[in-house]
Amino acid sequence: MHQALHHSCNSRLCIKHHFSLLQTLFFHSSITPLNFRHEKPLHQQQQSSSRVITKNPKPQNDLELFSTTLIASPTRIQKLIASQSDPLLAKEIFDLASRQPNFRHSYSTYHTLIIKLGNARQFTLMEKLLLQLKRLRIPITPGLFSRLICIYGDAQMPEKALKTFYSIIEFNCKPTSKHLNHVLGILVAHRWFLRPAYDLFRAAHKYGVNPNVKSYNILMKAFCYNDELSVAYKLFNEMLKREVLPDVESYRILMQALCRKSQVTKAMDLLNDMLNKGFVPDTLSYTSLLNSLCRKKKLKEAYKLLCRMKVKGCNPSITHYNTVILGLCREGRASDAIKVLDDMDSNGCLPNLVSYRTLVGGLIDQGMFDDAKKYMEEMLSKDFSPHFSISHLLIKGLCNVGRIEEASEVLVQLLKHGEEPHLGTWEEVIPRICETEEMERLEILLDEVIKVDLTPHTRIVDAGAALEEYLIKKIKANSRKG
Description:
Blueprint: H1 2-28, H2 42-55, H3 62-69, H4 74-83, H5 87-98, H6 107-119, H7 123-136, H8 142-154, H9 158-167, H10 177-188, H11 194-203, H12 213-225, H13 229-241, H14 248-260, H15 264-276, H16 283-295, H17 299-311, H18 318-330, H19 334-346, H20 353-365, H21 369-381, H22 388-400, H23 404-416, H24 423-435, H25 439-451, H26 460-481
Helix pairs in contact: 4-5, 4-6, 5-6, 6-7, 6-8, 8-9, 8-10, 9-10, 10-11, 10-12, 11-12, 12-13, 12-14, 13-14, 14-15, 14-16, 16-17, 16-18, 17-18, 18-19, 18-20, 19-20, 20-21, 20-22, 21-22, 22-23, 22-24, 23-25, 24-26
């Protein structure tokens, strides 16, 4: 008896749930049952509803009653399903509408619900709807398969994406190169699916699909990252034989792979081939080549390529200039790096923080303190903040060659611009000033310090220990004289 009561309660809860769902159908999508087509006062609507119930003794509950009276257009059902945030509720609306006499869902309703279920990872329900479409012989648009393949890809299910491609033809729909490229992109993202991707690429013509340049690029890039450059080259050459015109990305993929293997000469040959065929290389292609040339210490070629870029239709960016400046400074050619930086303005590209930091650092390493000081001041005048390590090296370098006054000037400039010298910088300058007994200069320096906001990084108190030590020594020395 208890079980029967429990079952009865569950049935009532289920009926209540479906009744609420039907209310949603009625009142939130402008769907009206047959008996309620004309608006009437509420008491008349209740009376009409009562007459329907008493007139027809067959319905056993509210769900059966409303399921026999619900009439709505497929368009309204589709809109209601599309508006649901809960995919399972959307599916219930679909099922309830399906039970109505002489009602048939539109393709757009199937499409909307399938995508909604797929995005929610309700793959079992989604695949059942697909089979239903197949059974009813409802034509399917290619766009639906594109979305399904992408959904499986997002869910990290490459096998399902591949199976979907192979099943397209079963729905009387012709696969396209777009479908092929979607699947290839998903497969090559998983290293162990690289060969299945290659097999699909080779078999694509059996399904009436001709791979395009994007198909080749996807595979070429994958094989390059898999350290199979020879296969990528084979695909590139095959493209030319099949009269598939390579694009800028095709060349860039191979050039970047060659640069990663330090085969910059071959990469430059590809660049020349590209230019001879009328292509304009993109900025990424030039960045890869410049980086590789600088790493191989072919700085003359790097500078020539930088100058050549603008002539060939690609204006050098700040990244290209900074790459060459860094390469020159690393090889002890800071004077040449100065020329590159000075050329930037005339080419409509302004140096940035990285440009100045790299150049000043390179000049200091070569002991070119006058130029380093000049560009440090230019850097500060443009409100660029030098890294504390660079300012420290400049001040230390000036101190080491006995140019204490200039070191003090740099420190004062830093303080005026609100920069916070490192403790090591203070420890470098103050003892040097103390050793030369230039107390007047020290007083000027300390006056500048007081004018700025001191922070924990400034550590002037710690650095003052050197000054204290110096003063103690002077007092003791004077005491002995006395």
